[in-house]
Amino acid sequence: MILSKELKMEALSQIIDREFGVVLHKFTKKQEYVDARKVFCKILNETGFNPHDVCDFMRRTLTVHNYYMKDVDSLLKYNPSINEKYLKCKELFFITVRGVNQDEPEYVIGTRNKVNYSVWDTESINKVEDKYDRIKNIIQLIDFNTPVGQEDYVFEKLVHVFENLSDDGEKIRQRKR
């Protein structure tokens, strides 16, 4: 199961609420709430989320988001307790997102159109997993490192890489003849 961007933001919101002891959506200017929102924006920005989506989720303006992003680095640099919470929240967020993607046995990347199987048919799932087991690490690497909203760009780069690989393979075959 892949989490939608709204579910990922909600998961991070809950992690930050727990670690900072605040409610992220509460409209207040208390410093601990503002610090939590800054950390929330920083983690999502580093993950590749669109600032407009983050603003919509937080119910804040883009100006506020930009202020948070401008100020968060100095906050983390000069406040070790906030930096520690930031690192813990970021780690928990990546564990949560990766755990959901990897622990679900019925989710197989890129095979929905190629293989006709039911989610409840474990035999078909095992066949698909066996077939793609050799490239599982590549798929996980791409899934983990592709920022949200940048899928088309990553796809174009992969197409370019594979075109170059196929060209190299043709050159090697010609040399062997």
Write a structural description.
By secondary structure, this protein is mainly α. It has 2 domains: about 5-105, Chromosomal Replication Initiator Protein Dnaa, Chain: A; about 120-175, no CATH class. It is about 75% helix and about 0% strand. It contains 8 helices and no strands. The protein has helices spanning about 5-20, 30-45, 50-60, 60-80, 80-105, 120-130, 135-145, 150-175. Helix 4 (about 60-80) crosses helix 5. The protein is elongated and about 55 Å long. It starts with a helix and ends with a helix.
Distinct helical segment count: 8
Helical percentage = over 70%
* Major sheet attributes: none
Q: Give the total of beta strands.
A: 0
Can you name the CATH architecture of the largest domain?
A: Orthogonal Bundle
Keywords summarizing the entry:
177 residues, mainly alpha, 2 domains
What layout of secondary structure does this protein have?
Layout lengths: L4 H16 L10 H17 L3 H8 L3 H17 L1 H24 L18 H11 L3 H10 L5 H26 L1
Helix pairs in contact: 1-2, 1-5, 2-4, 2-5, 4-5
